[in-house]
Design goal:
- The chain is α/β, with parallel strands linked by helices.
- The protein has three domains: 59 residues, Arc Repressor Mutant, subunit A (Orthogonal Bundle), CATH 1.10.10.10; 128 residues, ATPase, nucleotide binding domain (Nucleotidyltransferase, domain 5, 2-Layer Sandwich); 143 residues, Nucleotidyltransferase, domain 5 (2-Layer Sandwich).
- 40% of the residues lie in helices and 24% in strands.
- The protein has 13 helices and 16 strands.
- The strands form four sheets. A five-stranded mixed beta sheet has the order 6-5-4-7-11, with helices on both faces.
- Helix 2 crosses helix 3.
- It is globular and about 75 Å long.
- It starts with a helix and ends with a helix.
- 40% of the residues are buried.
- The structure holds zinc ion.
- The site of zinc ion (ZN) has 5 residues, from loops.
């Protein structure tokens, strides 16, 4: 019912009864409970052409609850927001973290969270967190080398600090659900984050795919060329990150003879090569890129689009869309908010 109201905007009890296939009595009972809890509001009546009592419009109480979202993916700061149920940001806070590692980094997250809880003007439904690294279903960060984390029970630690429901997920997975809910994302899509490394979140039929070892979407170290000599940090030669990670692109661009268009076109080509079998195997309708527009929009995007289309069966996958997100820097915090909306209220 909350989902119908969240997406429907302004439905009556009779509309809900029809849409959900439940009796008017059941609908009225549940709506009554939700109004009492403060989660649903009566908006007033709708003018009707039919005779009889005008219908009272309902809505989820979008501005009556807060959600907290945290993004731990940046190398220089942990970032957090307080939003309403529509994802509109009402407060922001961040904490500089250069060189912060291990337990000190966990304490930094706890400090930022405590600050955000104090900033929230309304009751908080829950806390969502997008963390780098491999995160299991219980919100344990199994491995996040940049933060020096191994088997950190972040979700449990944060829940203890704030006494609220907490959901911790991989940052790219959070970004993917953020795009799905707030960015016109489609139900079968992939969100590729291009930054210090390259990672992605996969959504199939509206759900995050986490995989057998919580590593679905880890595409940065897929070998996409054997024409390089120096090995990657992972030990292989010619990983996708070699061409696509932002520091690598910047290093290529800084070479004296660098041709900017050529460097970016080549990065896009390698990305398209890696995407083609994924799009084909899963019949995705959309791939969304997130990262600095200065690097990604332009030759990189155009080259990735043409490479992808050239490498898939046109009839089956030729209409796949490859585009940049429009959610900008807030993509991961908004995705973290969606984790809470989905988990606590069943809406997205
Ligand atoms: Zn590698």
């Amino acid at each position: 019912m909350l989902q119908a109201l969240y997406r429907g905007r302004g439905l009556s009890r009779a509309d809900l009864s029809r849409e959900l296939g439940l009796s008017r009595v059941t609908i009225s009972d549940v709506v009554g409970d939700l109004i009492e809890e403060g989660l649903v509001l009566e908006l007033g009546t709708r003018a009707s052409s039919r005779p009889g009592k005008p219908a009272t419009m309902l809505d989820i109480n979008r501005e009556g609850r807060n959600v907290i979202g945290l993004d731990l993916s940046s190398s220089h700061a942990f970032v957090g927001v307080v939003t309403d149920l529509d994802g509109a940001v009402v407060e922001r806070a961040e904490l500089g973290i250069s060189e912060v590692q291990g337990e000190e980094a966990v304490v930094a997250v706890e400090t930022l969270l405590t600050e955000l809880v104090a900033l929230a003007p309304l009751p908080v439904v829950g806390v969502g967190v997008g963390s780098p690294g491999i995160v299991d279903d219980q919100g344990v960060v199994l491995s996040a080398p940049n933060l020096g984390w191994q088997d950190v029970p972040l979700q449990a630690r944060l829940a203890e600090v704030c006494g609220l429901p907490v959901a911790v997920a991989n940052d790219a997975n959070a970004a993917a659900v953020g795009e799905l809910s707030f960015g016109e994302g489609q139900l079968d899509m992939m969100l590729v984050r291009i930054g210090r490394g390259v990672g992605s979140g996969l959504i199939i039929d509206g759900r995050i795919v986490s995989g057998a070892r919580h590593s679905a979407g880890e595409i940065g170290h897929v070998v996409s060329g054997t024409d390089v000599s120096e090995p990657c940090v992972c030990g292989n030669n010619g990983c996708l990150e070699r061409w696509l990670a932002i520091p690598r692109i910047d290093a290529h661009l800084a070479e004296p003879s660098a041709d900017r268009d050529a460097v970016l076109t080549e990065a896009g080509r390698r990305l398209g090569m890696v995407l083609a079998p994924i799009v084909s195997a899963l019949n995705l309708t959309e791939v969304v890129l997130a990262g600095p527009a200065s690097h990604i929009s332009g030759p990189l995007l155009a080259s990735a689009q043409s490479t992808l289309r050239d490498r898939v069966l046109a009839d089956a996958h030729g209409d796949v869309q490859l585009r940049m997100t429009e959610l900008g820097h807030d993509l991961i915090v908004l995705g973290a908010v969606v984790l809470v909306l989905r988990g606590q209220l069943g809406v997205s």
